[in-house]
Amino acid sequence: MQFVYPAFLFALAALAIPIILHLFYFRRFKKVYFTNVRFLKEVKEETSARSKLRNLLVLLMRLLAILFLVLAFAQPFIPQDVEVKKGKKAVSVFVDNSFSMSALSQDVPLLDKAKQRAREIIQAYEVDDEFQILTNDFEGRHQRVVSQEDALSLVDEIEVSPSVKNLSSVLSRQNQALSTGNADNKVAFLVSDFQKNITDLDGKPDSTMEVNLLPLQAVQERNISIDSAWFDVPVQTLNQTNKLIVKIRNLSSEPAENVRLSMRYEGQSRPVGTLEIPAQASVLDTVSITILRTGWHQAELNITDYPVQFDDKYYFTFDVADEINVLIIDSGSPNRYLGAAFEGISYFKLNRAQVQNLDYSSFADYQLIVLDDLRSISSGLSFELNQYVVNGGNLLAFPARDVDLNSFNQFLRTFPANEFQSFEGIRREVGRINTEEFVFSDVFENANANIKLPVSEGNFKMTGYSNRGEEPLMRYRDGGSFIAKYKAGQGHLYLSAAPLNPEYNDLVRNGEIFIPMLYKMAISSGRENKIAYFIGQDEVIERGHSATSTELVYKLRGEAEEFIPEQRIAGAKVFLGVNNQIKQAGFYNLFLNEEETLATYGFNYDRQESALEYLNTDALKDQFGSFLNVLESESATVLTGTIQDRSQGVKLWRWCLILALLFLGAEVLLLRFWKV
User: Fold this and answer.
1) 89-219+614-648 and 324-523: same fold?
2) Coil/strand/helix, residue 377
C-alpha cells in the first residue's frame, strides 16, 4: 500500500489525545451514598468491570476513528500490475470514425459505442488533467489539448467520415499533440474496431507515453464491394464500343448470389447483369459503352448490398477528345503517302514541321510524333523527344537511307533501344504480325487470313540486346524485327528498321496494315488515364495547363461543396492538391470561370475499409500485449474503474473516511446506550 500524501501520516500523533483523556478522565472517583451497604461490595465489583470494558471500547473507537481519518487525508492506494504515475496527466483519445464503424454492435452502431467509451475514459481522470480528442479527419482543432469539459463536447461532435488512417500515424499524432502540454504523464487510448489493414503497430511506441487499446466488435462481417474499374483500351474514341472492366469483391466468408450490377450513364440507368461471387474472391465483368459525343462523360456503377454500403457505388469519368493531334517531322521532303494516311481519317489533326524549325514547347500537345526519314537528330531534339516519350507521348521513327548512324544511335541509347548497324540493300519479307499486342489487337477479324504483308528492299541491320525491352510488332521471316516497340517512362517508342520511302519499303501501300497501325499507335498510351479517384489516397490531380495568366485560380465544385485546391503550375502542367478537402463521394467539376468546365473527376470512398477483418481482444493481446495495454469492458462502470485502477491504483481513502465515521458513530452509541 502506498500514499498519495504521506506527509499527513505525521497526524497520527493525535492518537495520544484519547489515550491521555482515558488515563485522566475515566480514573476519577465519584462518591456514591447508600442507605444500605449490605450489597455494596458486590455492586462495586460488577460496576467497575463494566465501566472498564466500556471505557476501553470507547477508547478503541476513538483511536480507530482518528487513525482512519488521518489515512483518508493521506489517500492510501494499492498499486495494480502497472506502475502508478503521480502528477498531472495528458490524455489523448482516438475515436475511429471511419466507415467500418457504422456497422452494428448489437443494437447500436459501433461509432456510438466508441463515443460512449471515450466519454467514460475522459471522466475516469481528474478535472485538472489535459485531454486531446483525435479522429481520422486529423482536423486542426484536434491537434491541441483541451479541458475535460471541452473534450466531452468534442466527442459529442464526432461523425462518420470517409477518411481512414493507419494506427501508426495516429499514435504519432497523439504523441506530437501530448508533447505540447506541460503534464507529467502522457496516456493514449485508441478506440477502434482494429481492422487488420490499418493495425500496423509493429514497433514499440515512445516509452514516455502509455498506450491503451480498446477494441470494439461488430456483430456482422459481410460486405460486397465495387473494387475498381478500367477501360480495356487506354484512349476512348468516338462512335466506338469501348469495353469497361469492372472488378467486384466478396469480402465475406460466404458466397454471394444474385449480386445485381447496374450503371447510370448519360442520364439513364440500365442493368448490366447478375453476378455470383465465391467467398473471399473477386470477379470481373465487362460493360460495353458506346460513345456518341466528345467531351467529358460521367458514369456511376451500382450494386445492392447491406449493411455496409459506402463502397456500393463507383463514380468514374472519362474524356473523349474532339481530335487526335499528330506531328510529322521531316527534312523538307514530306512523304505524301504518310500525309494521306492521316488526312484520310477525320479524327486526326495533322501538323507538319521541318527538323530545322521546331517548337519544342508544343510537343506535349501531340498524341503521336512521326520522324519521317530524318538523316540526323541533334542532341537538343534528342533530349526533347526523350522527355516527350517519358511523359506519355508516342513516337514513331523511320530512318533515312543515308542516316547519320552516330547521331541516330546516340538518340536511341537514351531510351534505351536497339541500335542501327549497317544498311543492307536486300529484299526481306515480313513473316509475322504480333496480333497479341495492343497496336494490332482486334484489327483483323481473322488473323490467319491471307493478308498481304509488307516487303522491304533495303533495311538496317539492328543489334539484339536482350536488356532493351524490345517488343516486336512485325518480324521478318528470318526473325529480325521490322517494327519494334519500346516502353520508356509513360510512353512508347516505335522504331522501324527500314526507311518509309516507297523505294525501300512498301508499307505505305499496305493500307489494311498501315492505317490501323498509325491509328492504334496514336491512341496507345503508357500513361495511366485515371478514370476514378479515391478520397484520402489521390491528393494530387495532374492536368494540362494552357492559361496565360498566372493570377487565374482553379476551383473544384461538387454537388454539395466548392473549394479552391492547392495549385502549382509547372510549364504546361498544373498540379492540384486536394489535401483532404473532399468529404463526399461524387463528381467534381474543375473550372477557371463559371461558364466553362475544364474537366470532371469522379471521387470514391477509400476501399481500404471494405475488408471487414478485425483483430479481436485475444488477437491484440497476442500480437501487441507485450508492449501495449489491451483493455476490455462490457459496461461503463467496469471501464471507468479499470482505468482509474490502472492510472491511480485502487483508492482506499473513501473506505478510510467511511470507517472513521462508523467508529465515531459506534463511540456515540456506546456512550449513549451503555449505562454503567
Assistant:
1) yes
2) coil
